[in-house]
Amino acid sequence: MSIKEQLRLDLTEAIRSRDELTSGTIRMVLSALTNEEVSGKEARVLTDDEVITVLSREAKKRREASEAFEAAGRADKAALEKAEGEVIAKYLPAQLSIDDIKKMIADAITSTGAAGPADMGKVMGAVKPLITGKADGSVVSTLVKEALNK
């Protein structure tokens, strides 16, 4: 079963159980998926990898919004955004640990022959396919910078 089919089934279940947070979040995600499908020259069906990319983007939006509301002293809104992010996270692959990411970065540095900060693009290019949907890109970017500045 594809991720999108699972989202639709879970939406039906959330509506039946009157879970407004889950149903609202899944509706928002399905809307984002539909927008992605119809963008461009012709409509298409997204693969599971593309769905994970959209889910990651939506989760990042919730994380950033939560941080912004927290900074503005709106704990209620921050909690809502955080809860929506947790609903989205159920559909994402398990997140990589920092140690796993550092190991992937070290392997990428070795394989690309990167020598300094100027080679960050090479390393990110090698690591990105391995971490898509499994780690936040900004965290990976920070870790790559640290590794290349040593």
TrEMBL record:
GO terms for molecular function: carbon-nitrogen ligase activity, with glutamine as amido-N-donor. It holds the Pfam family YqeY. InterPro entries: Asn/Gln_tRNA_amidoTrase-B-like, GatB_Yqey_C_2, YqeY/Aim41, YqeY/Aim41_N. This is Unannotated protein. It comes from freshwater metagenome.
